[in-house]
Write a structure and sequence with these properties.
The complex is a heterodimer of chains A (278) and B (312).
Chain A: H1 3-24, H2 29-34, H3 36-46, E1 61-64, H4 70-80, H5 120-133, E2 140-145, H6 152-163, E3 169-175, E4 178-179, E5 182-183, H7 184-187, H8 193-199, E6 203-208, H9 212-224, E7 230-235, H10 258-277
Parallel strand pairs in A: 1-2, 2-3, 3-7, 6-7
Antiparallel strand pairs in A: 4-5
Helix pairs in contact in A: 1-3, 1-4, 1-10, 3-4, 3-9, 5-6
Chain B: E1 6-8, H1 9-23, E2 27-31, H2 35-38, H3 40-46, E3 51-53, H4 58-70, E4 74-80, H5 81-87, H6 89-97, E5 104-108, H7 126-131, E6 137-139, H8 144-156, E7 161-164, E8 169-171, E9 187-190, E10 195-199, H9 203-216, E11 221-225, E12 228-230, H10 234-244, E13 247-254, H11 259-270, E14 275-280, H12 290-296, H13 301-311
Parallel strand pairs in B: 2-3, 2-4, 4-5, 5-7, 6-7, 10-11, 10-13, 13-14
Antiparallel strand pairs in B: 1-8, 6-12, 9-11
Classes of the chains: A alpha/beta (278), B alpha/beta (312).
Chain lengths: 278, 312
């Protein structure tokens, strides 16, 4: 998929996020939107996966450690064909398989249940270790929030991955700089993030989370890196693509009302139209 | 009892892992810098490539096990009960229990029989914690034979299992050709008509001895060994309670949330019966020799005998 197609797809993923959260009247749009380009790149370009065979043994794995951004994951899975896009409107509703946080037991394409911060990364490390133990060559990707890395378990996992030289593991940090209580630099700063991962024996790449050329270069570099895991620190904009949500922490875990939804969709339609002119 | 063979169930665990490691090449063992104490070191000697030391980081260890299980491995994670069930409780609940992953938790050094290390390491709450997790199987074997059988049964079972082992060497009581371990099935060790003693773990042997002393006083106690606390063999317990009309539970665990609570849950629904819960009475432990602690807290044959006698 070329860059323009990726951009168009990411825009559709964003529409799905906003629609799902609006329909649910709850959920986490800010961090889903900030990671939408990363989700899109992983599921449409980077990973060896097959929506028709979600559990194929040699598939690459993805663990959404920042599980509250499930709307982002579900939207990209729907776009990729794991389940109907229409189902996104059932998010968080009683009886829906689209649980508030990722549920591997019921959602096609979800490799690990997650949501309690700091835990997904350990599971991803376990998957990467498993591949090493049995000489399989699938790769494992996990996406963390920059607030999430305040959890100590993240660094337990990082220490282990670095120690075991898990070069089939890519840890991506969605660095949108905002957590519920404010800027991560104000709440309990985890900066410098890149230096921390370096200290845990990771190969570290800093990247613009919304630039597909940069994302391609970063994931290619991760793939070429041997003997150590890679951490991609992706500098992002929380709420990216929806004017009034961008860099506004109040959209971390709030759903738009009908009026706001209309504005958000108009924003995204405009982006989509502009992309079609290219 | 002096010539009775004594083995700590943690030793049995290590030995069983070696045996099972030969049978299942997807079995892997994880430890958190306690391989010498949990006895997973026994497995490490034979299968070093399948023994993963995670360092002193139990929460991450449980998460790694969950990840391994998603790919078809059968991970056994080991630490002291305090850390496996206590520190990593939320990881066990959310990363293992919720997705119902095939992770086996081999928790050693359970209960006050940890001894000299004292209260910080004496976990009397693990059964309570683990049995609240939906789908979690909880096993507390009474001796070497049962502990090894429990490891095999845990592997046969597809889903999370919590196995509780002890540090103290305890008498081998199930060493007979008829012994058969069935997950979720209690074992009727002695029939009686006056009172039912339901025991688990190292208290089973003590309960059997207590029943002998009670018999000398003309009290005919029924003794049931509950190795699987969840799922509980409710039929066996209810039937016995209906017969004797009085139940005493005995466990090296808090009386809040453990075997005693599980038995009460079953009886209050199906056969309300007076129950006396013998165990750790809502207090922390303390340092001391294991055998002396078991005596002090009333969990030896003498303590059980006195409690049952005053209850009947």
């Amino acid at each position: 998929m070329d860059k323009l197609e990726l951009q168009k797809t990411a825009n559709e993923v964003r529409k799905g996020i906003v629609t799902a959260v609006h329909s649910a009247k709850a959920g986490h749009p800010g961090g889903s939107l900030s990671a939408a380009d990363i989700f899109t790149y992983l599921y449409f370009e980077e990973m060896n996966i097959d929506p028709k065979d979600p559990k194929k043994p040699d598939r690459d794995r993805f663990v959404l450690s920042k599980g509250h951004t499930a709307p982002g994951l579900y939207s990209v899975l729907a776009q990729r064909g794991y389940f109907p896009v229409e189902d996104l409107k059932t998010l968080r509703q009683l009886g829906s398989y689209l649980q508030g946080h990722p549920d591997m037991k019921h959602i096609p394409g979800v490799d690990m249940s997650s949501g309690s911060l700091g835990q997904g990364v350990s599971a991803a490390v376990g998957m990467a270790l498993s591949a090493k133990l049995s000489n399989e060559d699938y790769r494992v990707y996990t996406l963390l929030g920059d607030g999430e890395i305040e959890e100590g378990q993240v660094w337990e996992a990082a220490m282990f991955a670095g120690h075991r030289k898990l070069d089939n593991l890519v840890v991506i940090v969605d660095n949108n700089n905002l957590q519920i209580d404010g800027a991560i630099s104000d709440v309990c700063s985890p900066y410098p993030i890149d230096e921390k991962f370096k200290a845990f024996n990771f190969h570290v790449i800093n990247v613009d989370a919304h630039d597909f050329d940069a994302l391609k270069a970063a994931f290619d570099e991760a793939r070429a890196t041997k003997g150590m895991p890679t951490a991609i620190i992706a500098k992002s904009t929380k709420g990216k693509g929806v004017s009034f949500m961008e860099n506004n922490v109040s959209w971390h875990g709030t759903a738009p009302n009908d009026e706001q939804y209309a504005v958000a969709m108009a924003d995204l339609e405009k982006v989509g139209e502009a992309l079609c002119q290219k | 009892m002096s010539e009775v063979k004594k083995i700590a169930t943690r030793e049995s665990y290590g030995n069983a892992l070696v045996e099972m490691g030969a049978k299942y090449d997807n079995l892997v063992v994880l430890d958190a810098d306690l391989a010498a104490a949990t006895k997973t070191g026994t497995f490490k000697k034979v299968y070093p490539e399948r023994h993963i030391d995670c360092g002193i980081a139990e929460c991450n260890m449980v998460g790694i096990a969950a990840g391994l299980a998603t790919t078809g491995k059968i991970p056994f994670v080991s630490s002291f009960a305090m850390f496996a069930a206590g520190r990593a409780f939320e990881q066990v609940r959310n990363s293992v229990g919720y997705p119902k992953l095939n992770v086996k938790i081999g928790a050693t050094h359970a209960g006050i029989s940890v001894g000299e290390d004292g209260a910080t390491h004496q976990c009397n709450e693990d059964i309570a914690l683990m049995r609240t997790i939906p789908g979690m199987v909880v096993i507390n074997p009474s001796d070497d034979v049962e502990a090894k059988a429990a490891v095999a049964a845990a592997i046969e079972h597809d889903g999370p299992v919590y196995l509780r082992f002890g540090r103290l060497a305890v008498p081998v009581i199930n060493d007979n050709p008829d012994y058969k371990f069935e997950l979720g099935k209690g074992v009727l060790l002695k029939e009686g008509k006056d009172v039912t003693i339901v025991a688990t773990g190292l208290c089973v042997c003590e309960a059997v001895e207590a029943a002998k002393k009670l018999a000398e006083d003309g009290i005919d106690a029924e003794v049931i060994n509950i190795h699987t606390i969840k799922p509980l063999d409710e039929d066996l317990i209810v039937a016995s309670a209906k017969k004797t009309g009085k139940v005493v539970t005995v466990e090296e665990h808090s009386v809040i949330g453990g075997l005693g609570s599980a038995v009460c849950d079953a009886l209050c629904a199906k056969a309300p019966t007076p129950v006396l819960k013998v165990g750790i009475q809502d207090v922390f432990g303390e340092s001391g020799a294991a055998v002396k602690l078991i005596h002090k807290y009333g969990l030896d044959a003498e303590g059980i005998y006195e409690k049952v006698k005053s209850f009947v």
